[in-house]
Automatic annotation (TrEMBL):
Organism: Streptomyces colonosanans
CDD domains found in the cross-reference section: PP2Cc (cd00143)
Protein name: Serine/threonine protein phosphatase
SMART domains, sorted: PP2C_SIG, PP2Cc
Sections of the chain in a coiled coil: none
GO molecular function annotation: protein serine/threonine phosphatase activity
Record-annotated membrane-spanning stretches: none
Boundaries of every PPM-type phosphatase domain copy: 3-246
Amino acid sequence: MPYVAVSALSHPGLLRERNEDSLVIGPWTLCATVTESPQTLVFPLGTPLVVAVADGLGGQPGGDVASALVVRRIASIGPALRSEDAVRDTLNACNRAVYEAAEGDERSELAAMGTTVAGAVIQSGSLLAFNVGDSRVFAASRDGLRQLSVDDSPPLAPGQRTTSLVTQCLGGAPAYRAIHPHVTAGSLSPGDRYLVCTDGVTDPLTTDVLDAVMREYDDGRAAFELWKAAIEAGGPDNITLAVVRVGDGSGGGL
């Protein structure tokens, strides 16, 4: 039976006091948690399976609240995400839910809480990659990493490789702002591999480093080596990632 193996971890990094990232794999969520050892989950390929990360906005309260709210909502509706429109509708609903939660905070500490989100819906024969913000989804192949997500970031200055600024996210403003989610459809075959991660991975590590790790390792070892590389590069932000592999079930193990 064809299957999907997902290996993931989430860690605060070396400079942040707490982890404001969250993660969803099917019905399983991980919010503001530390997992230095990757967790690997295996699912039959068929019913839509969502794998996504959400990176709570730093510099203001409630990033962990916003990211957790989003992944839990996605987990609850994941099996119904069979089309691009369904994904867009869900992300728009998540955006409204973040604003509604902020408005319900009587102390106004959460008034501008927000989060990015990026992930993939995996089902038989197809994949839907999506994002709002600068968390990323990559396809890993023999030809190298190919970014499927679209960064919502301002143009970089000459010599600048990364930026912490985003041009859209879920929530993140005192008054409601609509979003325009990026959703891309593609085919899916046994052996396909993907990386879903927050910018705690992509800011300190170049695409060449990510590609080298994904070429050399599979599953949990790949997740661990990516985390280790981000830590060795200074671990400047929360690190959350998921390595996805589609297997054909014909043998060979995980």
